[in-house]
Fold this sequence. Notes:
This protein has two helices and six strands. Helix 1 (58-73) packs across helix 2 (107-121). It has one domain: Tetrahydropterin Synthase, Chain A (2-Layer Sandwich). The protein starts with a strand and ends with a strand. By secondary structure, it is an alpha/beta fold. The protein has helices spanning 58-73, 107-121; strands at residues 4-16, 29-41, 76-80, 98-101, 127-136, 139-144.
Amino acid sequence: MTLIRITKQFRFEAAHALYGYDGPCRTIHGHSYKLSVTVIGSPQSDPSSAKIGMVMDFGELKKRIKTLIIDRFDHALLLHEAERPGLAAETNGPFCKVVFLPYQPTSENFLIDFADRIREILPEEVSLHSMRLRETDSSYAEWFAADN
C-alpha cells in the first residue's frame, strides 16, 4: 500500500492581540495568514469509485477546512477570552466578528486547535500529516503528526 501526501493551501485575514504580552503584539494588529494542510493516505484503488487515484478530493478537503476554520477566523478579531470583560458587546460595526479563544491567539496555539478540529472531520482512511501557518513572509509555525 503506497502512502501519498496531498496539501491544500488557504488564506485568511485576521487581527489579534496577545493578552498580557510584554511587547508590541499586545495591541491589536493584523496578519495575512497562509495555512497549508497536508493529509496522508492511500489513493483510492476501487475501479468503481469516482475518486479512483485520489487520496482525498482537493475540493472536499477545501470545503471541510473552509467551513471549519477559514469561515470562522477570516476577517475576525481573535482574542483570549480573558479580554472579553473589557470589550463591549456589539452586534454590528467594527467589532461584530470577535472570536474569543480559550488560549493565547498565537500561531502555535492556532495549529494545536486546528489539528484537533481537522482530525475530527477527515475521512477514516485519511490522516492529518502536517500543517504550516505563515503569519508573515518571514515567520511561520509548523505542526507534524509524528511529533505529537
